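Is this the right way to post structure tokens for a design question? Let me know if I should format differently. Anyway, here goes:
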């Protein structure tokens, strides 16, 4: 068993400011929480940007550039930028910041899918901003688009042009087969960093048997050509990440994926979640990968070759 890579997804585009007072919104907050997460043990920091005025997701490269250099100057962690952006963004909007930043790694959703986060709106009693409730409730009629052509375009424009590698986000079994199709056609190259995702309404459910099935399917499709990681939404985050660690996998935590640290208790920071999963993994006699070790495992280009 190799060392475990911990990824921390710091803010995302799913949760809104009214859902947690601890969600980082401003560039300063995103930078501070990213640095703290890296210090707690995260080798990879996965990043979205938000409008500092009201917390809504933004694709604006100028906002990204307010925190990317700060994080890079303060930590050796791998910086991973979203290509999923936020709900309703065009492909060009989603790629604007990554194309400018030329990061070592970007996320890449491996298919179009229903992406329903509307149920979370029912749990919010008081809204801080007018955009939040319709943003969440509107996802009952929302499809996140990543066609085969979109995926190839992202790989071409970022991977082939700038040496960026990808966190291939697989929300369902079909996404694994989409990725295998891209591998067979040599659109993508190993080692593949395969992030299997559980518990998003529209994707595969957060059940242990589903985790086993996704892992078995990935093994059949990719053999030794991939590095496996797990993220699970909400209350499923720690149990399924623990299961992944026991099975030789890597893990992703962070306030993008879950606002919680325990039953009925919201996490006060991303670092708190990183520290918890690290503690669990180390109690299982597993070693945590450093950023340098993660770069070697994933064959990344190195932080000196990025655009920030």
């Amino acid at each position: 068993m190799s060392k475990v890579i911990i990824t921390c997804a710091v803010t995302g585009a799913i949760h809104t400011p009214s859902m947690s007072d601890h969600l980082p919104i401003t560039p300063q907050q995103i930078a501070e929480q990213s640095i703290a997460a890296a210090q707690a043990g995260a080798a990879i920091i996965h990043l979205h940007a938000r409008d500092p005025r009201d917390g809504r997701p933004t694709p604006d490269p100028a906002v990204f550039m307010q925190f990317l250099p700060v994080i890079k100057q303060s930590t050796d962690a791998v910086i991973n930028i979203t290509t999923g952006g936020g709900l309703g963004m065009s492909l060009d909007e989603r790629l604007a910041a990554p194309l400018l930043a030329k990061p070592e790694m970007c996320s890449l959703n491996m298919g179009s899918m229903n992406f329903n986060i509307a149920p979370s709106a029912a749990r919010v009693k008081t809204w801080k901003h007018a955009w939040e409730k319709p943003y969440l409730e509107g996802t009952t009629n929302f499809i996140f688009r990543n066609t085969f052509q979109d995926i190839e375009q992202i790989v071409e424009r970022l991977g082939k042009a700038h040496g960026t590698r990808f966190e291939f986000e697989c929300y369902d079994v079909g996404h694994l087969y989409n990725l295998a199709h891209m591998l067979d056609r040599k659109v993508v190259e190993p080692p593949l960093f395969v992030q299997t995702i559980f518990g998003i309404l529209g994707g595969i459910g957060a059940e242990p048997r589903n985790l086993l099935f996704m892992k078995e399917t990935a093994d059949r499709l990719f053999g030794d050509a991939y590095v496996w990681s797990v993220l699970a939404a909400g209350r499923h985050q720690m149990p399924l990440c623990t299961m992944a660690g026991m099975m030789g996998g890597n893990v992703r935590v962070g306030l993008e994926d879950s606002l919680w640290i325990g039953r009925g208790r919201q996490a006060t920071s991303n670092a708190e979640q990183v520290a918890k999963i690290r503690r669990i993994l180390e109690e299982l006699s597993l070693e945590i990968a450093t950023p340098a070790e993660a770069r070697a495992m994933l064959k990344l280009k190195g932080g000196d070759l990025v655009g920030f």
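Format looks fine. Someone answered above. Worth noting: The chain has a mean pLDDT of 97. The chain has one domain: 6-302.
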